[in-house]
Design a protein that fits this description.
This protein is an alpha/beta fold. Helix content is 37%, strand content 19%. A hairpin with a 7-residue loop joins strand 6 and strand 7. The termini are far apart. The structure holds NADP nicotinamide-adenine-dinucleotide phosphate (NAP). NADP nicotinamide-adenine-dinucleotide phosphate (NAP) binds next to helix 1 and helix 5. The site of NADP nicotinamide-adenine-dinucleotide phosphate has 23 residues, from helix 1 and helix 5.
Amino acid sequence: MRIAVLGTGLVGRALAARLSELGHDVCLGTRDPAATRATTDADGHLTETARWVHTHPEVPLLTFAEAADRSELAINATNGSVSLLALEATRGHLDGKVLLDVSNPLDFSGGFPPTLFVKDTDSLGEQIQAAFPDVRVVKTLNTMNASLMVHPEELSEAHTVFVSGNERAAKQDTVELLRQLGHEDILDLGDITTARGTEMYLPLWLRTMQALGTASFNVRIIR
Ligand SMILES: NC(=O)c1ccc[n+]([C@@H]2O[C@H](COP(=O)([O-])OP(=O)(O)OC[C@H]3O[C@@H](n4cnc5c(N)ncnc54)[C@H](OP(=O)(O)O)[C@@H]3O)[C@@H](O)[C@H]2O)c1
């Protein structure tokens, strides 16, 4: 499947690399490919993202719009605080396609731990669906770290991944992709409003990470 991963951070790179390994035709979306390829840190060394791009020639780096345009399915792995802005660049290129939304509405302006800039009565997943009514948004994978998204077997026991979206067929495509990534316990919570639950789990996820001293953990729903 032709998949566009929109976002060049830890999550975008992890998903792009693994989905490509699994045989998908993957591209990575960024604001300015030339700038992303050449970005250096304070010491003048290429950033991790720039180095990743150079060592993964099988994953072309395109603009958000170009990546969305060539895709059959896309993944929003942009910073949650700018996801609506970043996705604006893809307007018209994702209509009718499934968009897996892994973003979280984290606000770091007050330091760590971050707060949520939308909660209780709305969610970022719903805001994205409302802003792009012709895109088939499915919220998933936002409740675990990037490494577990693509290698759930890193934990010795099965753990749960949640799915929220308005359309059954879009969620079926999502479940198929999650299974390819190795996820076994997949819980469909319902329509996109249920993304409020998984996004509002983040404050607990963050405190658990602090208490455990690691991000390599997840929850399992025991029925
Ligand atoms: N890190 C995790 O383990 C984890 C786990 C679960 C969910 N998430 C969620 O997954 C998403 C990605 O997280 P991440 O840590 O991989 O990356 P991130 O640093 O949160 O986001 C990086 C991406 O955001 C884009 N971006 C930043 N400012 C922008 C702007 N003003 N306009 C348009 N695009 C902009 C960047 O574009 P350029 O490529 O152009 O720089 C880049 O592609 C986030 O929403 C995060 O909350 C992360």
